[in-house]
Amino acid sequence: MNLEKYQQSISRLEGQHKAHQTQYNSTVGQLAQLKVAQEAAEKALVLAQTVAQQTQQELEFRISDIVTSSLASVFDDPYEFKVRFDIKRGKTEAALLFTRDGMEIDPMTASGGGVIDIATFALRIACYLISSPRPTPVMLFDEPSKYLSERYRSSFADLLTNMSSKLGIQFIFVTHCPDYEVGNIITL
Fold first, then answer.
1. Is 163 inside a domain boundary?
2. What count of Cα atoms within 13 Å lies in the side-chain half-sphere of residue 132?
3. Could you give the number of structural domains in the chain?
4. What is the phi/psi pair of residue 23, to 5°?
5. pLDDT by residue (tens digit) across 6-62?
6. Segment 125-182, tens digit of pLDDT
7. Tens of pLDDT along 18-30?
8. For residue 106, is pLDDT > 90?
9. Which DSSP letter does residue 18 get?
10. Which 3 state secondary structure label does DSSP give 177?
11. H or E element: which one contains 176?
12. Which residues contact 67 (CB under 8 A, 6 or more apart)?
């Protein structure tokens, strides 16, 4: 009788062993599949980060070029405009900066209002140019150069005229400044 109990116990344990072995083999297979999926996800992440970085560089170049060119067309000793992309809290943030003589300058605290006026005007143009699809080529502004000194107003008027001609954009803006009532610039 004891022998029969031992044989039943051994059979039961062998059955449990086979069940555990089957579950172990299944888990090992699932682990292998998860490792393959993890490797694919890591490759996809690297690809996405590479594409994002290339896109950021292209956008940085296009935006910086438009803003820097606009600043240079208005001011004698212009700042260079830069967009620096930083990853913070797992997300990409853009820092907008002026540079001069290799030094980064916070636009909001270390430059005059007229410079900010021209930079924000040019940023709006850059946003228009990178939009897809592009909106109607009419842009409305309210006092786009309210802090620009009188000395630079004719240069800004020339910038408006040149951009309007080159880009096919009609600019309409409200201003209290009579200096802009020249050529094809219409003020309200």
1. yes
2. 1
3. 1
4. -65, -40
5. 888 888 888 889 989 999 999 999 999 999 999 999 999 888 888 888 888 888 888
6. 998 988 888 888 888 888 888 888 888 888 998 898 899 999 998 888 887 776 665 5
7. 989 999 999 999 9
8. no
9. H
10. coil
11. none
12. 81, 119, 122, 123, 126
DSSP per-residue letters across 96-164 = EEEEETTEEE-HHHHS-HHHHHHHHHHHHHHHHHH-SS---SEEEEESTTTTS-GGGHHHHHHHHHHHH
pTM of the model: 0.69
CA–CA gap between residue 119 and residue 156 (Å, rounded): 11
Q: Answer whether residue 187 is part of any domain.
A: no
Distance in angstroms (rounded) separating the CA atoms of residues 102 and 148: 25
Residue 74 counted as domain residue: yes
What are the phi and psi torsion angles at 66 (to 5°)?
Answer: -65, -45
Residue 33 maps to a domain:
no
By CB atoms closer than 10 A (0-12, 13-18, 19+), residue 47 is: exposed
What is the domain-level CATH number for residue 58?
Answer: 3.40.50.300
- Domain of residue 145, residue span: 45-180
Instruction: Evaluate whether 126 touches 155 at the Cβ level (below 8 Å).
Output: no
Q: How many residues does the chain have?
A: 188
- Both tokens of 89, joined, read 């809290």
Q: In degrees to the nearest 10, what's the CA dihedral of 46, 50, 56, 60?
A: 140
